[in-house]
TrEMBL record:
Pfam families: PHM7_cyt (PF14703), RSN1_7TM (PF02714), RSN1_TM (PF13967)
Principal subcellular localisation of the protein: membrane
Species: Planoprotostelium fungivorum
Protein name: DUF221-domain-containing protein
Record's GO cellular component terms: plasma membrane
Residues in CSC1/OSCA1-like N-terminal transmembrane domain copies: 9-160
Residue ranges of every copy of the CSC1/OSCA1-like cytosolic domain listed in the record: 212-356
Membrane topology: Multi-pass membrane protein
Listed transmembrane segments: 6-31, 81-106, 141-162, 369-394, 414-442, 463-481, 621-641, 653-678, 684-703
Keywords attached to this entry: Membrane, Transmembrane, Transmembrane helix, Transport
Source taxon at top rank: Eukaryota
Family under the similarity heading: Belongs to the CSC1 (TC 1.A.17) family.
InterPro entries from the UniProt entry: Csc1-like, CSC1/OSCA1-like_7TM, CSC1/OSCA1-like_cyt, CSC1/OSCA1-like_N
Length: 768
């Protein structure tokens, strides 16, 4: 078994990534006990994590982490993400062990070679472990045929089990006494008090039983817990922000004054006097105190007299019984609704995007179309540089594009391997780093009233973007260059191009007929032969760049997520040089820790799943790097969720709903790819695999119909014309867990700007 330059580049990339990962983890273990408020703020005081040992925490994390405990303490979002990682890891570990004793020897002993014009091409090194090393029409291809079916069946089973588990846990979550389970958001209709809310509910809910009158009378009493009309509070928001900024300035002035023997003065600045007007000189502390009192009085006055507060025809209605809210959200399709009225499940109060509630449905629809067009254009634009990076992954393409550079690099095998093995993947990762921020910013402008919905849409868009720009570019990019070169040397193709460029402008009818005859006769067959050859040989050979990509993401990204060196440096700068008050230090801690990014992790993990499952039977070794990736992902996530990141809001595990369909999409692409590759290998049974595509679609539709509504609304399903009794409405309102009871449920959906701010001195006493 020989070794190629690509193999050497692969080895160099592996060694470099391993060194980076080990160094990063060692540095993290050293820094971790020195910065406890940064590296385990949620675990302070817990001996197992708080010990002075550099490495003892690892064994505690691995052997004492419980998913049931995580579900109880950190919610369904964390649990479902960890189960997602655990499930994929189970699939890849099982099939790596299976393929190690089956596909590896089948590929290695294939010994396929073919004549490529001037030379005979054979496969050595890692190439000999790929599907490319199997001759056309070989009986060995039956293994790939059967494993494609077996792997597909495995994915169906585990996804069904996971979806069923999610639906059951989601039903339990919806039974908890949380504000979002008792509340609906109604838009497009003016509701100002509890009486109007009760009247609206009675008009919408489908009461059709013979005891209708008695049911309404019983429900009417105490039906609504609270009604919160949504106002346009833009002016109040600006005042509140101004109030907060001046609180910081006043506290800072007090701290600075304590270290100064002379009084600190404030001078009003203007364009003419940028250094301050001495005639307006005033004690700095008194200046900010007076300014805060003025802003405070302005805020209170606006709140008491509704100055600048305009209702936006939307309201959050919180009910005594969660089943009323559940039924109301499922009854919005009845013909009783007026045009423009919509009833939504309320999100977690912390996830409400107040400024978007006033967005009209038509406006949201138009902006969604604009967002789709923007993401599509952005994806196509990014394909150009990413496709160029993919061309750098093979020696042949480098030699074709930049022969002088290749000759220079060949003088140093190490440098050449870095350029071929590491640089393209590294440039791709860097070039994609800004994409989540851009897509998240664009999505936030659509008008979704929930941050949860925004994150769901971002997950979907990011997956599509990553799939096109990473997977498809690396899969087809290098083959495209070969295709162009072979077409350019094809005589029929050159004849057609010449005729098209010279005679069509003259509109010569005989020439047009000749061109069409040539195009429809010999050339398509030659073109098809070229494409089939490239597909059957080049695509499996692209497994090395894909393995490097998976390995780099695993060994660089996850240790880096533990270390978080950039936020640590920023935090140190703030605490050492910029922060002077307790409030400033607390803000610096909060801003540098942040929250766990489910969107970014789900999108990247789904991309890795799609890449690995597509190449799993072409090059089984990629499963080894997938195992490393998902092991590190599981390890890092267990640590960060339990000990570092606070929960920003409770999404109730709904991110999983976007994951299920995209995993099946990746499976469908794998099935289509295997049909094409086995067909290119002239395996006569390959068309049979096409049956898997409709099976995948039917499986998705079946699970969607079976689980989606249950997961969204809970166990109680209400259809149009159903009978609703008072006992049914009150059923299911039993408190599941006392810890879920929120005493302030009545005011959970009150806009923060409508609460009076605390007096300046009361707020500063504990922050100085």
């Amino acid at each position: 078994m020989g070794i190629t330059t690509s193999d050497y580049a692969f080895v160099v990339a592996t060694v470099v990534n391993l060194i980076v990962a080990v160094i990063t983890l060692v540095v993290f273990c050293i820094l971790r006990p020195r910065f406890p408020t940064f590296y385990y703020p949620k675990a302070l005081g817990r001996n197992q994590i708080n010990s002075g040992s550099y490495f003892k925490w690892i064994s505690h994390l691995v052997f004492h982490s419980s998913l049931k405990r995580i579900l109880k303490r950190h919610g369904l979002d964390a649990y479902m993400y960890l189960r997602f990682l655990q499930t994929i890891l189970f699939i890849f570990v099982a099939y790596f062990l299976f393929f190690a004793i089956t596909l590896f020897p089948i590929h290695f002993t294939g010994e396929y070679s073919f004549d490529d014009g001037n030379k005979t091409v054979s496969f050595i090194g890692l190439e000999s472990l790929t599907l490319s090393n199997i001759p056309p029409k070989s009986p060995r291809l039956w293994a790939h045929f059967l494993f494609t079916i077996l792997l597909s069946a495995t994915v169906y089973v585990v996804l069904y089990v996971l979806m069923k588990e999610y639906t059951e846990l989601r039903a339990v979550h919806l039974e908890k006494r949380l504000p979002e389970n008792h509340t609906v958001l109604i838009t497009g209709v003016a509701i100002h008090n509890e009486a109007e809310a009760t009247s609206y509910v009675q008009r919408i809910l489908p009461f059709h039983s013979t005891t209708r009158r008695n049911s309404i009378n019983e429900v009417e009493e105490g039906l609504v817990r609270s009604v919160h009309v949504v106002f346009d509070t833009e002016e109040l928001v600006e005042l509140q922000q101004k109030y907060e900024r001046n609180i910081f300035k006043l506290e800072r002035a007090i701290v600075e004054q304590e270290s100064q023997p002379e009084r600190l003065m404030h001078k009003s600045r203007s364009v003419k006097r940028p250094l301050g007007d001495p005639n307006t000189e005033k004690d700095r502390i008194e200046y900010y105190q007076d300014k805060l009192q003025g802003i405070y009085r302005d805020i209170i006055s606006r709140q008491e007299h509704d100055v600048g507060l305009k209702p936006v025809n939307a309201a959050f209605i919180t009910f005594q019984h969660k089943n009323v809210a559940r039924l109301l959200t499922q009854s919005v399709l009845t013909d009783r609704l007026l045009l423009g009225e919509q009833v939504h499940q309320a999100p977690d109060p912390k996830a409400v995007v107040w400024k978007n509630i006033s967005a009209s449905p038509n406006g949201v629809f138009v902006r969604k179309l604009v967002l789709d067009a923007f993401v599509l254009a952005m994806s196509l634009l990014w394909v150009i540089p990413i496709g160029f990076f993919s061309l750098l992954t093979t020696v042949e393409n480098l030699d074709k594009m930049m022969p002088s550079l290749v000759n220079l690099l060949r003088k140093s095998q190490l440098l050449f391997s870095i350029v071929e093995g590491i640089l393209p993947v590294l440039l791709t990762i860097i070039f994609l780093a800004m994409v989540p921020f851009v897509i998240r910013t664009a999505t936030s402008k659509v008008g979704y009233h929930s941050q949860i919905k925004i994150e769901l849409v971002v997950t979907q868009k990011l997956f599509v973007f990553y799939y096109i720009n990473v997977f498809m570019s690396f899969l087809l990019g290098p083959s495209a260059l070969d295709l162009i070169k072979r077409l350019s040397t094809n005589s029929d193709f050159n004849t057609i191009v010449t005729l098209l460029s010279t005679n069509i402008p003259l509109q010569s009818e005989p020439m047009m007929i000749y061109v069409m005859t040539q195009a429809l006769s010999s050339f398509p067959g030659e073109l098809l032969r070229i494409i089939v050859t490239l597909l059957s040989t080049n695509i499996p050979l692209q497994s090395e760049p894909m393995m490097i990509y998976v390995m780099t993401q695993a060994l660089s990204s996850f240790p880096g997520e533990l270390l978080r060196i950039v936020p640590l440096i920023i935090r140190a700068i703030y605490h050492r040089f910029l922060c002077k008050t307790v409030r400033e230090h607390e803000k610096a801690d909060k801003d540098t820790i942040g929250y766990f990014d489910y969107v970014g992790h789900y999108s990247q993990d789904l991309l890795i799943f799609a890449i690995v499952i597509t190449y799993s039977t072409m090059q089984p070794m990629i499963l080894l790097f997938a195992i490393v990736y998902y092991c590190l992902a599981l390890f890092t996530t267990l640590y960060n969720i339990q000990f570092v990141f606070p929960r920003e809001y409770n999404a109730g595990g709904v991110y999983w709903t976007a994951t299920f369909g995209r995993m099946l999409f990746g499976l469908g692409v794998f099935q289509l790819t295997m049909v094409g590759l086995l067909g290119a290998k002239q395996f006569y049974a390959s068309p049979v695999l096409l049956v898997l595509i409709p099976i995948t679609i039917v499986f998705y539709r079946y699970c969607d119909r079976l689980f989606s509504k249950r997961a969204k609304y809970g166990p109680l399903q209400s259809n149009r014309g159903a009978t609703i009794e008072i006992d049914e409405i009150r059923e299911g309102s039993v408190l599941i867990d006392e810890e879920d009871l929120r005493d302030n449920m009545k005011d959970s959906y009150q806009q923060n700007e409508l609460f009076p701010p605390e007096q300046p001195m009361n707020r500063m006493e504990e922050n100085l």
